[in-house]
Amino acid sequence: xxxxxxxxxxxxxxxxxxxxxxxxxxxxxxxxxxxxxxxxxxxxxxxxxxxxxxxxxxxxxxxxxxxxxxxxxxxxxxxxxxxxxxxxxxxxxxxxxxxxxxxxxxxxxxxxxxxxxxxxxxxxxxxxxxxxxxxxxxxxxxxxxxxxxxxxxxxxxxxxxxxxxxxxxxxxxxxxxxxxxxxxxxxxxxxxxxxxxxxxxxxxxxxxxxxxxxxxxxxxxxxxxxxxxxxxxxxxxxxxxxxxxxxxxxxxxxxxxxxxxxxxxxxxxxxxxxxxxxxxxxxxxxxxxxxxxxxxxxxxxxxxxxxxxxxxxxxxxxxxxxxxxxxxxxxxxxxxxxxxxxxxxxxxxxxxxxxxxxxxxxxxxxxxxxxxxxxxxxxxxxxxxxxxxxxxxxxxxxxxxxxxxxxxxxxxxxxxxxxxxxxxxxxxxxxxxxxxxxxxxxxxxxxxxxxxxxxxxxxxxxxxxxxxxxxxxxxxxxxxxxxxxxxxxxxxxxxxxxxxxxxxxxxxxxxxxxxxxxxxxxxxxxxxxxxxxxxxxxxxxxxxxxxxxxxxxxxxxxxxxxxxxxxxxxxxxxxxxxxxxxxxxxxxxxxxxxxxxxxxxxxxxxxxxxxxxxxxxxxxxxxxxxxxxxxxxxxxxxxxxxxxxxxxxxxxxxxxxxxxxxxxxxxxxxxxxxxxxxxxxxxxxxxxxxxxxxxxxxxxxxxxxxxxxxxxxxxxxxxxxxxxxxxxxxxxxxxxxxxxxxxxxxxxxxxxxxxxxxxxxxxxxxxxxxxxxxxxxxxxxxxxxxxxxxxxxxxxxxxxxxxxxxxxxxxxxxxxxxxxx
Length: 821
Fold this sequence. Notes:
- The chain is of the alpha+beta class.
- The chain has 6 domains: 1-130, PAS domain (Beta-Lactamase, 2-Layer Sandwich), CATH 3.30.450.20; 132-237, Beta-Lactamase, CATH 3.30.450.20; 239-360, 2-Layer Sandwich (Beta-Lactamase); 370-477, PAS domain (Beta-Lactamase, 2-Layer Sandwich), CATH 3.30.450; 503-599, 2-Layer Sandwich (Beta-Lactamase); 613-818, Histidine kinase-like ATPase, C-terminal domain (Heat Shock Protein 90).
- It has 28 helices and 33 strands.
- The longest helix has 45 residues, at 605-649.
């Protein structure tokens, strides 16, 4: 068995202090080295002589100021060096009298980084993780010496109410349990027990009765008289109610949970059974710990169980080898605490299968047995320096990095590997000294290879030991690629900066509050502000007119959500004038969060004015076009009137009929021009509306025929250009007029159905009557009448497909053409 002391005792300053006076009785070598006093000098001092106390509240807010457990100490070495320490201590008997075993932890790093997490300090780690209980220290007469904050919270009395008060023990313990409690203490003193655990009732300040568990440590003086009792107390009132919760949680736990009583397992959870390959019922009430333990480890396990059952230790955590139902060996880690279960001592705890961890550790240990292989396998340069700064060992990475053979490095110092003129040797030596003194160093450096190439390095120097000697282990990493990348990044940033500053377009850089951080020269030129006038101001308050601020705020929210915004608006210059601008809002996104925005403003005032002029010109042309349509309609009306006058003055019925037909055709065209100048869109008309009006005009014109002809119209709302509306109108005029004149020769009544439909871009016009039908010799390809010729010509003009067919009774005409864009 190795007799080498654990590194903890060699690395930490440790003192043995008188319990009352805090005089130093003994100290370890590290204390002598750290404080610079000789062993004899230290043993003649009081621990308070080593420095002054610093309030804990200067490090962590909200910590109670009194009580040494909550304090940081500023200590001084003999040569005046200041450093921060925090004590952890434990009271025990030493040479027949009570003393404190005190460890001075260096917390300089925590202070330097202004640490605020309690768990980062050693004292709090101990008090909060190991002692989350109320602490009470009693003297030999059962009077309170120390009363912790958790005791105040648990029992309700403040420290000043109980410290030194006679009879407080009788006030704390209910009368019915007082004798039993005193007898338990007297028995422990009689047997010179150093600790014992008990459960019992406790009365709080407000009269509530709690069930508490007491962990008591007894300290005796040189005469074996009781000197003090240190009690840790926890409230277990709700323990019974928690048992069901414990069982429910343990059933789902990923670690094994067990309860041992009378040498057998009274409870195991499913995971525990799975670890050993059994069913739960095969273990519970049938097997004990020894049955699941590898034979060579059974004495260890049973001894540890016995210690807890007998109260020698309250809890235990250790590793051992187990054996599964199939006979396989496994490694497990177990934690167990002594409890009282059903009024009898028991052990409850957890068990974790660490077989894989053990195998990993075994492989790791096998790998580190060949130190040189591992050392040389690292690509970074590693060299070990002694206390004089000389290199005493390097790895293969250093050989490859610098280009020298390994023997070249031995005995050299860092300056022998440095790039001349680029390294501060004095500063480098200080880094080495600090590393030797235990402070990890990290810095950048410049090296020179054997071929003369100069290159940047990242250096990390750590304190260590090498064959029992203090050394500095330095890791050097070639950062040429990173350095070049950073240099390229700096160049890119400068290029972007120049682009921002010299862009002819105004740009403002804004933070998350839309406050101006920078603007370029173009912004200053357009808006009249210099950056010194407006840095830190809200840009909306500065350049957005009052009537535009609400929409500007909504657009800003869009940009800060990570979307680019683009819109036109007006903005206000320094002299109060308004300009039209095209605005781009570009978010700056880092780690999926918008941290700033660029506002880009393009002055479009001149373009807006040109647009207004263009709109004005367009309006004038629209008025002119409407007037033209009106005049064309009026001129066509004059022609119609002339034709009507001519028909009135002729005696030929044939001429009258021709003139009347021409008059109807002209009316269909005039009606289209009337619709166009009445419409807001001067190039398109709603043909479904036009169709209704055309049918009415034809019916009125032919009313003298004294036939009751009904026209049914089923037309979808379709817009036609003048180029398609006029041919369609003329075709309809021919079809309706011919139906009036020829479809019903021997009838006074008839019906004409007109439909207009659209399928995507195709238009279908259909006219159907219930008359005698079209003559069989009617052929659109070989038209005989002027009307049919006109229908054929107009259909071609529409690039459409037209056809006639007899319906029995009646005639159907169908025209299909593509809607003009």
